[in-house]
Input
Amino acid sequence: MGEPGGRYARVVRRFERWADALRAVVERRDDEGGLVAGGGGGDDVAFVEVLDPAWRDECAALARKLGGWRRQLVGLAVRGGDGQAATSSLAVVLAACRELVHDMLAELDVMERIEREALRQETEWIEHMSRDDGSDDTLKAGAIWRVL
Output
């Protein structure tokens, strides 16, 4: 799971690509002052993309598997003859495994929270831009000769 081409690494790489795209969208908005995505000279609107449902499903599956491993590793606490935690090589390896699983679960949680927060901010930005749109294109009823 934790090997370079494994499931966990793929989830992290996908998140990092999404985070880079998020950063680029936010920077373009700041540089262009609002809606225009820039770059191509067009009037494209830059929006933050949503991570695909497959990514969320993979995160959930990894969290379940890691949670099971964490429970098993807690049950494998190595104790010495006097009830104190052992300092054997096995105890050190198990402690490192517990730490790794804990950190992987924490990283999955942080990635999911970052995505939720980014999407919340994106929704707020869209609402703000639609409320504060300075161009009032609304047609008003009235006599045409008053305009001429």
DSSP finds four helices and no strands in the chain. The longest helix spans residues 89-131.
